[in-house]
Amino acid sequence: MRLRQEQLNDHLTQQLAPVYFISGDEPLQSMEAADAIRKAANNRGYVERDILTVEGQFDWGQLQSASDSLSLFAEKKILDLRLPSGKPGLQGSKAIQAYLKKIPMDKILIIQSGKIDYRSYNAAWVKALDREGVVIQIWDLSPANTLTWVAKRMRSYGLNPTQDAIRMLTERVEGNLLAAAQEIQKLQTLFGEGEISDQQVIESVTDSSRFSIFDLSDAILTADQKRIQHILKILQEEDTPVILVLWAITDLARKLYQAAKGNAGIINKMPRQKQTAFRAISQRLQQADWQAIWNSLVEIDWKSKGVGAEPSKSENRIWDAFLQVSMQLSGQKVFASKW
Predict the structure, then answer these.
(1) Model confidence pLDDT, tens digit, residues 126-176
(2) Are 14 and 44 in contact (CB under 8 A)?
(3) Which of 84, 108, 137 is the last residue of a domain?
(4) Whole-angstrom Cα distance, residue 318 to residue 339?
(5) pTM check: above 0.70
(6) 28: containing domain
(7) What residues does 21 pair with on adjacent strands?
(8) Domain end position, chosen among 184, 204, 224
(9) Same domain, 199 and 285
């Protein structure tokens, strides 16, 4: 049986399945779903818990051993299986299916998994979980759904936020729900229950967006101008080495140039989830001024090494140049910069 996360609490008030499978890459929602199941199980007498983490050369015989073992205090037990990769392999698939063919009466199995692709949902072990237990897939929230989530979460803490406050908090945490939950708790602690304005959010919330150079590449591929600017701002504030940012942009530029010039093989080497965006950007860049892009990257390299730069102005100009060339690679027309 498949459930959406928002259906889980109603389900748990009525019944407790012998097996739950939670998959997805959004940590807070996955964690809270597992917590809700464990709490419901505790209330029904499942007191002890064994945690099995699948990593390295994991021995899948441990699952069978945990299934067969008697509790120290003859209590019901929760088996908490962690599967970060979302791929149990052949041995794991067989072990899970074997467990499901003979589910122990005194155990509840909770499998927490990383995100699995659509093909994996047709795998025998996932079908068996769907047939014998409950499957909950955690989806990343869209920007609109994130706004709704933040508003609902704030109100659950007794806060009455303005729309500007909701937008401000959502923008500052940049889709990081765990950070959002922490900041909402902080707002309640600082201001208590009641109305919350955007100014109070500004006073309370630290920018919980934490980016890497690879997030910048992803933002360029999706041509998200606001996100490009925001990521570069955070990277600069965190003193990210210029050479790393230059490497990321140059590496992406080389791949886009090859694709724009007809090298389809470069697209096939990209992760499947990025291929559509990569193809769309490379098509828009077919008529790009590539000489200007290469000149900009070379000039950034020079300035980062202090060649001909005014020390007092060089760093900000480098980050301005990063923004300009990032916009160019995202398919935006920009004017040439003046060093």
Answers:
(1) 999 999 999 999 988 888 899 999 999 999 999 999 998 998 888 878 788
(2) no
(3) 137
(4) 9
(5) no
(6) 2-137
(7) 111, 135
(8) 204
(9) no
